Amino acid sequence: MTDLIDELEALEREGREAISGARDAAALEAARVRLLGRKDGRLTAILRRLGDLSPEERPRVGAAANRVKEVLTGLLEARAVEVEGGAAQAAGIDPTLPGRRPWRGARHPVTQVMDEIYAIFRSLGFTRARGPEAETDWYNFTALNTPLDHPAADMHDTFYLAPGVLLRSHTSPVQIRTMQAYRPPIRIIAPGMVYRRDPFDASHAPGFDQLEGLVVDEGVSLVDLKATLAEFARRLFGPEARVRFRPSFFPFTEPSAEVDVSCFLCGAKGCPACKGTGWMEIMGAGMVDPAVFEAVGYDPERYTGFAFGMGPGRIALQRYGIPDIRLLYESDVRFLEQFS
Ligand code: DAH
């Protein structure tokens, strides 16, 4: 019996040396198989001889064998971690650094608002139209009943690319292009970027999103405009949302209105977002001016229509409580990640 106890002690001693001497994972695995391998390992060989012992001796040797097995297993595990760390370090990797968070993509907040708006107008029978961002002053101003000496056409407000060519300052020229290309009935929305010579500050951006709407047919009236926008507001802002029209002026509509929606943040009670008024301005709108129909060769005696223009970026700012419009256009992933 003392033979076996001696052998176990020798196994432990040699095992400690072999394990601490193993330089890589393969050497460590070889040591494990030699020491503790189930079929031909040294410990297994010793355990096989337990049967030769008397029933009194067996438990003591068995307990000693278990202890050696535990000690060596623990050492093997600890050394495995060291060997792995060494390999990582040799490869220039610091295994103590925190792991990288998995990257989650997110749709841009303006895209999220745009997609909702598309879905609403699609269900109301609108299709989507597009126009170029570089426009002529005829499409951007003249055809929209805005003479070139109108303040809006001023060099100070518009980016001119060349004489008569500019970056569109609104999406309204898409109205003109659509009416030139199609006969009524027309029911379109036209999303896109627009550009103005504004400072880049918390409430202005030199490029931003707009979404235009245009409906032209026989017998279209102000009632259709109001019903369409009221339904739009309920779908986008919730069933309690109401709209109100305030008289305003745009050269391409007559009459014209600023359209407000009841504040969807405070339920129209009055809060900082709506400056205590209970209303938020969300778009301009009106009945298409007959001069615009004349510019595209539509008969203003036969056709009437309505138009509207909104800023999906502005709506995203209000909805998500974003304090600075620059956040929308700077592509900072730390900001954008929050919208996943
Ligand atoms: N184009 C106007 C702007 O940029 C917005 C607008 C107002 C569009 C009234 C319209 C409209 O179609 O009817 O401020």
Task: Provide keyphrases for this structure.
about 350 residues; single chain; 2 domains; about 20% strand; BirA Bifunctional Protein, domain 2; three-stranded antiparallel sheet; seven-stranded mixed sheet; rod-shaped; alpha+beta
Characterization of this structure:
By secondary structure, the chain is α+β, with helices and mostly antiparallel strands. It has 2 domains: about 1-90; about 110-340, Bira Bifunctional Protein, Domain 2 (BirA Bifunctional Protein, domain 2). The protein contains 12 helices and 10 strands. The protein has helices at about 1-20, 25-35, 40-50, 60-90, 110-125, 135-140, 175-180, 220-235, 290-295, 310-320, 325-330, 335; strands at about 125-130, 135, 160, 165, 185-195, 205-215, 245-250, 255-260, 280-290, 305-310. Strand 3 (about 160) and strand 4 (about 165) form a beta hairpin. Helix 5 packs across helix 10. The mean pLDDT is about 90. The structure holds 3,4-dihydroxyphenylalanine (DAH). The site of 3,4-dihydroxyphenylalanine (DAH) has 11 residues, from strand 9 and strand 10.
